[in-house]
Amino acid sequence: MAKTAMEQQIALKMEENQREITRLCVLVAQLLLQHGAESTVVAQSAVRLGKALGASSVECALTPNAIILSTVINGHCITTTRQNTDQGINMHVVTAVQRIVIAAEHRIYDIHLVRHKLENIQPLKYNRWFVVFMVGLSCACFSHLSGGDLVIFLITFLASAVAMFVRQELAKRHFNSLIVFSFTAFVASLISGLALKFNLGNNPQIALASSVLLLVPGFPLVNSVADILKGHINMGWARWTVATVLTFGACIGIVLALNLLDIHHWGN
Prior knowledge:
This protein is mainly α. The chain is built from 10 helices and 3 strands; from the N terminus they run ααβββαααααααα. It has helices at about 1-35, 40-50, 90-105, 110-120, 130-145, 150-170, 175-195, 205-210, 220-230, 235-260, and strands at about 55-60, 65-75, 75-85.
């Protein structure tokens, strides 16, 4: 009788250990997917962590809105699901999670330390005014590389910096991404469009084109192609669709600004 009770206690302990491994694996997948990692990296990192912590098999399925993960230990299977909510692209979180997975694989971290490290990851965020300045400077530099003079450089810097500030404010108030992109593009085009309306600088079209470069969804587009090529078709198409919709929103803002400025052509 005592042996049976001991066996039950061991079985319960093993089951709880497997549940904790499953929770950690799905947490890794959730953090990576929420912060912009490609689907292959998400699935592989979850599988690697599970096997490093003692699981004999780990299966991870990704959808645009959820993560489904199963672990198998001694023939016992546990499956869990987590909702995926976009937290914005942050490579600091992605690299921090990957370092934890590597440390677990090298037996530097045990299951308790992995939990502690994952729960204490804090996304690195730059000072908002530094971001505004650097975005404005990068767009302005692109206008200069495209042949714009000092006037075009300054107009582009002002338009893109103000637009980035507006984007931050709208995002802070949790507006829909389509609205954020549309209004940001509207503000940038409204300011840079003044160069085209009053023929400022040597090539006003450059300012108008360069000031909205901060809205190009490059990361989602790259990830979507990578996902499709690596077999995550649904995730790839979902990311491609989101990037396309956001680009469409930016186009709406540009068209509205040009109509408000009564500009009916854009080009030489």
